[in-house]
Amino acid sequence: MLKIISGKYRNQIIPTAKNIKYRPSTGKLKEAIFSILTSGEFTGNKLFNENTHILDLFAGSGSLAFESLSRGAGFATLIDIDTSSLKIAEGFAKSLNIENNVNLVNINALNLPKANESFNLIFIDPPYHKDIVTKVMKLLIKNNWLRDGTIIVIEMAKLDDYALDENIEILREKLYSKSKLLVLKYNN
Q1: For the chain, domain boundaries
Q2: Domain 51-186's class?
């Protein structure tokens, strides 16, 4: 069972599809992500405010985006290839009365078009063992999804490799059980 950990919507249960096709972040890993992001170490403790725009790639249930909105982020875009997951996320946004703060996009994250806007914080949680992180990072840069100072959080398989552009700074890399957590910053 996925729930929102903290903020305005704390303890709200995040609905998921019955025949789940994705691997949601574990509660422990989600807590670790938000502990790092709210520490103020990289963002001066100003990351979650009404001007913060979140991008949740491979969003699935939208757990990371909804947690961010609960903590005060102003807007979230959820991108996923699975229509049923996005429909469930849409229903959850409506139940919280934040449907105007959520944009749902049904596309393959490996085919990202040119961006209409850039984002303050990007979550990337792709399927494990698919060699996706390097490809997606190149697309985000090439198609202008990043702005100077964008924080990027990636959850990937512990043993998966990745390559980063020279403008990407590794702020934190941690290993958890079968997962690797990367916190990055784009410096343009």
Answers
A1: 51-186
A2: alpha beta
